[in-house]
Design a protein that fits this description.
binds zinc ion; globular; 4 helices; two-stranded antiparallel sheet; alpha+beta; 5-stranded antiparallel sheet
Length: 176
Amino acid sequence: MPPNNVIDGPRVSTWRCPSCQESVPRLLPNGKTNRIPVAPERMALPDGTVRQACARVQGLRAPEICYACDQAYQELLGTLVRPPAELGDARGDPGLNDTGLIGALLPIADQGTQILIFNVINEELRCTEIERLISFNPDRLTYPGSRGAIAPRIWALYEDHLAQLHARAPVPYHPE
Ligand SMILES: [Zn+2]
C-alpha cells in the first residue's frame, strides 16, 4: 500500500508508436505530447538515389512517432554502418571499403520503422539492406575519423549530412 501522503498522479493513457511498436505514454513528463510528426528531412538524406529507394518501399507511412524514436532517427540518419558480421571495433580507425551508410528511416504503419542501408556496388550507390529498427544491431554503427577505403560517394553523403547538422546547431556564445 502506498504511504498516505503520496497522491496518485493523473493516469496518462498510452498509444502504440508505429515506429517501435511499443505502448508509450501520450504525454512526456514535461507535459508535451509524445507524438512527433516526422519531417521528410529527418527521414531521408537529400539524394536522388535514396529518394528512389524510399519510393520503392511499400506500406503506409505513419505520420507521427514517439519522442524516443524521433531521437533515434536523428542519431541514425546519415551514420556509417559496417556489414552485419564484421567483428572488432572500427571506430577511430580509417574506414573500410565495405562501410555503408543509413540513407533513410521509414515509419511504416503495422511493420515498424525500416532502416535503409546503402553501399556502393560497381561504382553505383544502391540500397543493399532493409533492417527493422527494433532488431538493428547498434554495434554496426561506426565513426571512422578518416575516409580510408570508404567509397567516395558514401563518404561525401556522410560529410554533407554532418555539415547540415552543424549548420542547424545553435551557434556557441563567444563573449567579446
Ligand atoms: Zn517509438
